[in-house]
Task: inverse folding
């Protein structure tokens, strides 16, 4: 009998999603190629090294892949016991931006300088929120369906989101944190009425703000976020201000046509789009690879989300499924918001494109999240 059980354990197979591994590696490789193409001109001028941004991103990518490999071997249930500390530590990390550890880049104080490395605590907060909410929702079980339980869970990310918004003045990351919570709640809660009411309320409030700002017009005392709304409504009227980057991005998209000008042939990256390797890199993809290249990249993101959705649907338990749903929500929101900003569908919020835009800490923590997804997948029995 013992020999039979030993043989059964040896025959036990685990699910390995090789297609998801390929997609992640493809996006990372493509991102490095586009990063070098986009940033080489500016890097050569500012740092006397055309590969300056490429080398830094490559280092973080390799380190991130190593972290992903390690995390993929750590049982995902391990994070349950650390959910509360992770929640508070992520909040403390955000608050530390205002101390001597904080670092200012291009007028924005959003980074921590730790051991010579610049880390954006908002990225830590996103990962921490996924772990904390997955643990909370799993423990609440059916209580999540009650009004009290629903609003309690939705209130949990509010302090972290407010800290990110007020301390680092990073509205886009605060929106993503709340968006992750909303998506995880949507998946785990029966019924749609509350969500329809919340979305309707948010859209209604946004419409009121846009109408009020548009009617008031520009004045020198207007908050810069409201100026972005005016620039979104009429970028040509603010071509020397907040509308400049948006207009240049639209010129890049329009000039790319169907198949683009060719890799490395962008004109807008030659100083016309400031720091194009960051949140505006999608416009350079459109210019160099055209509509075909842009759709291909978005298709790869759709494939990645689809493969992760399969993992979530087949996860061994609710906790594992919620972790994967949180990662899906994070990546999906970030891709949608980035493309919407670049195409001037929504006001400029300064959000990066996952795996492709320049940003070491963003890539590192995204790959950590992917590692968690891989571990959930490993626990799916064939």
Result:
């Amino acid at each position: 009998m013992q020999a039979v059980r030993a043989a059964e354990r040896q025959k036990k197979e685990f699910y390995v999603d090789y297609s998801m591994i390929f997609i992640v590696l493809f996006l990372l490789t493509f991102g490095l190629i586009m990063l070098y193409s986009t940033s080489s001109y500016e890097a050569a001028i500012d740092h006397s090294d055309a590969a300056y941004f490429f080398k830094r991103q490559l280092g973080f990518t390799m380190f991130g892949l190593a972290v992903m490999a390690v995390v993929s071997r750590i049982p995902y249930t391990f994070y349950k016991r650390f959910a509360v500390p992770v929640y508070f530590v992520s909040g403390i990390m955000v608050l530390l931006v205002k101390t001597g550890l904080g670092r200012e880049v291009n007028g924005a104080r959003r980074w921590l300088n730790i051991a010579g490395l610049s880390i954006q605590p908002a990225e830590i907060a996103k990962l921490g929120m996924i772990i904390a909410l997955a643990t909370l929702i799993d423990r609440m079980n059916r209580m999540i369906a009650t009004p009290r339980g629903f609003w309690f869970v939705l209130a949990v990310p509010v302090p972290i989101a407010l800290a990110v918004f007020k301390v680092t003045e990073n509205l886009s990351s605060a929106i993503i944190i709340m968006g992750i919570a909303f998506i995880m709640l949507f998946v785990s809660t029966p019924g749609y009425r509350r969500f329809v009411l919340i979305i309707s309320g948010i859209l209604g409030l946004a419409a009121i703000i846009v109408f009020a700002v548009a009617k008031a017009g520009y004045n020198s005392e207007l908050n810069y976020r409201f100026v972005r709304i005016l620039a979104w409504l009429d970028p040509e009227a603010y071509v020397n201000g907040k509308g400049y980057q948006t207009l240049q991005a639209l010129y890049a998209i329009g000039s790319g046509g169907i198949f683009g000008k060719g890799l490395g042939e962008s004109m807008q990256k030659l100083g016309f789009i400031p720091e194009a390797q960051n949140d505006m890199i999608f416009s350079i993809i459109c210019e160099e690879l055209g509509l075909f290249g842009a759709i291909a990249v978005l298709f790869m993101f759709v494939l990645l989300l689809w493969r992760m959705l399969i993992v979530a649907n087949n996860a061994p338990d609710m906790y594992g499924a919620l972790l994967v749903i949180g990662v899906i929500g994070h990546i999906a929101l970030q891709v949608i918001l980035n493309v919407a900003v670049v195409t001037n569908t929504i006001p400029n919020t300064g959000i990066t494109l996952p795996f492709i835009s320049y940003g070491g800490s963003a890539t590192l923590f995204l790959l950590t999240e992917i590692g968690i997804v891989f571990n959930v997948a490993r626990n799916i029995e064939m």
Notes: The CA atoms of residues 86 and 260 lie 45 Å apart. The longest helix spans residues 281-313. The beta strands are 102-105, 108-114, 117-119.
